[in-house]
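For reproducibility, we list the full input for the flavin-adenine dinucleotide complex.
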Amino acid sequence: MVIVGGSLAGHHAAACLRGLGFDGSLVVLGDERHRPYDRYPLSKGFLTGETQRRELDVAGEVPDVVRRLGARATGVDLAGRAVVVEDGNGSSSTDWSSLQGPTARRGLGGPGPGRLGAADPRGRHQAPGPLRAPARRVVVVGGGLIGAEVAATAVEHGHHTTIVDPSDVPTGRTLGRAVAEHLLTLHRAAGIDVRPRTRVRDLETSGRLVRGVTLDDGTRLPADLVVMATGTQPNVEWLDGSGLRLADGLDCRATLHAVGSDRVVGAGDVFRAPHPLLGGESVRMEHWASTRRQAALAAENMLGGPASARPLTELPEFGTTIHGARIRAVGFPQLADRGRVVWAPSRTEPRWCDSFADRPRSRPSR
Ligand SMILES: Cc1cc2nc3c(=O)[nH]c(=O)nc-3n(C[C@H](O)[C@H](O)[C@H](O)COP(=O)(O)OP(=O)(O)OC[C@H]3O[C@@H](n4cnc5c(N)ncnc54)[C@H](O)[C@@H]3O)c2cc1C
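The corresponding predicted structure, in tokenized form, follows.
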């Protein structure tokens, strides 16, 4: 069995395969040189140095696994049952699953994320604690959940912080409008300069340093640090021409088997599959808890085969803390018919609450 992607989904799938009694050869290919690590601190405590590198490591060893770090899958031969890795050596197998993660989305005319003082919060290779430095001007490009976490962390540590986002209400697509509007209020109360309905057109750089950003209306914002939080795109280019269907990631059936092969399953941020709550519409879920559940189901269904496979029915679930307020979501808050913010008696911490549609329905188009 070959698992492509050596982080959360890959590690958990390997652990589940062994836990379910799979005693065949198990190879995990990971193009990063790190052992599996959790990403959620990267937009929170890791930015300020409060969370150290060693604390990111995913707990638990998986017995008898060949872990190939720094090995990138570049192709797959479905008929020959082989995955090709970057060094050109084929890695043959009798069965294999595909579980690999997304890459940060690029989109600016300037240099890509991760260079020139622009931090890409997806990578552990970034220096820990970039927000520990004295107060600086921080521009966060993208006001979704990760951008919101980064901005809240930055402003809390005394940085002059701006969020630039093209939508009316950043995070509305993830949290639903009512909660997103409340979060916007919290951002502004904390002192963040939120620029909705605005895009960054360009990065201004000098040598290896970033100097600022230019907005689409021509406004220039000086910056000492620019954080790209513009979302991800599934890392599936290497599957082009393989016979597997690619559509906003690896297209899978409800059992997580890939469309086009019963020998491939998907789990984690990279795949999409139909969800019953969406009336069978396919969706990608990019959440920590969902990833672990999908990895467990993918392992079970890979071993059992499609005939006895269970469909994915669990609701997506995520949690985070922003400006000290805890957010927990189960399901698809963006589909809520109604939304409201429910305050705890002390009003120090609101309990955010969205009402859900009673029956399956389609998502509104983006
Ligand atoms: C900054 C940040 C903050 C987050 N915060 C939260 C949070 O608060 N709550 C929450 O629920 N979720 C959060 N998430 C989401 C959560 O971390 C992801 O859902 C989870 O990491 C998905 O795991 P994964 O294994 O599918 O993908 P990843 O963790 O991205 O791992 C995929 C791995 O596959 C490798 N890979 C890709 N292509 C190849 C290839 N061709 N060959 C070999 N290897 C390959 C990648 O390099 C990577 O190591 C956050 C994510 C980020 C980035």
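The longest strand covers residues 200-206. DSSP finds six helices and 24 strands in the chain. Both points were considered when choosing residues for closer inspection.
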